[in-house]
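Box 3.1 A note on notation
Throughout this textbook, protein chains are presented in two layers. The first layer is the amino acid sequence; the second is a C-alpha cell string describing backbone geometry. Keep the layers aligned when reading.
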Amino acid sequence: MSPSRQNLLGLDQSQLAEFVENLGERPYRGRQLFGWLYTRGVDDLGAMSDLSREFRERLQLAAEVRGIAPVASRRSSLDGTTKFLFALSDGLKIESVLIPPPPPSRRGRPGATTSRGG
C-alpha cells in the first residue's frame, strides 16, 4: 500500500467531506463514506455500492482503509490474562492486555489496558 494514499480510518464525517471535496465530489459523499466505514464496518472501497464506479476507482487510487494489524498474542496459564501485540500504520506497536473476570468468590469486572511505545 502506498504511503501517499490517505488512510480514511480515523477521519470524522467533516474530514471525510473535505477529503471527497478535494477529489471533486460533493460533501454528501463524505457522509456516505462515514456510513460505510463506521456504521457498516466495510473496509473495501470497491464494495461501497452506492458510490459510483468512477468515484470508487478514484477513491482506490487516493485512499485506503488501514486499521491495526495483529502481530502476536500470548495467554498466561496462571491467571488467564492474554497479551496482544498490534502494529499501527505508522510503524509503532501497541500492547494490549485482556484481564479475565475474577473467580465468582471475588468482586470485580474484567479489564483491559493498552500502551503504545516506540
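The helical segments are 13-22, 28-39, 53-62. The chain has two domains: 6-64, 69-117.
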